[in-house]
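Schema walk-through. Below, the input block comes first and the output block second. Nothing else is stored per chain. Lengths vary across the set, and this one has 252 residues.
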Amino acid sequence: MTSLPEPEQDSKPWRRSPFGSVAAGAEGAPTITLQDAVRRCRWIAVDLAADGFSLLYAGSGLDSARLAPCFDADYPAISAATRRLADGAREELARHAARSSVPRWWTSDPQCHTAITLAGIVHVEATAPQTPGRSALAFPVHADRGQCGVVVFFGDAMQVTPDDLYDFHGRCYALFEAVARIRPDSNLPMLTRREQECLKLTANGCTSEDIARLLKLSVHTTNQYLANTTQKLNAVNRMHAVAKALRLGIID
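--- output ---
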């Protein structure tokens, strides 16, 4: 995964987070984008001393529980660790996220700092490694509209006390509620980096020929990328796809 940059200078950055404690739908609720959510999740990761993170939706029905990636530290791409969490073998984690709020953690190295720290906290459960070779702490999260998911932080050097655990979990809840407002469709596929580039250039008024020249692609390949974005976003044409992507914060 990519390295995490330092957060803005603020000892408690979440105290002024645009997510705050504003209830969904409340008057004056801030307007944010998916990029804002990624940045706030990155701040939480820095405070945890984590080296990566993932936010995934969980299926609403326990009989069809699964995890669907929303974003991670490699945004706008999706990392290998997130893809592992989203495959069928991780169905149990999705079921747990859908029915419980108890955080879970796992590790492949019981002697690492993360394992030693979390093993001493009562209100968090150890589970079998979900991402081999990586330690992780997973917070189940739920939103007012019935959506549920999990925010996962990775790293062998995470630092958390019992009191911190509640604070971090609360911040993850606020983050997920904000994401659920701007991206209510948990089944919306992620666009690849090239698809986003083509869509963003379309939003800037570029034709397929312009995009092909700028990205050094063939016109056929460019049109295929744009066709993919239209299909993935369930849009009627590329301009409708642009409008939906802007509304969801996928492009800016």
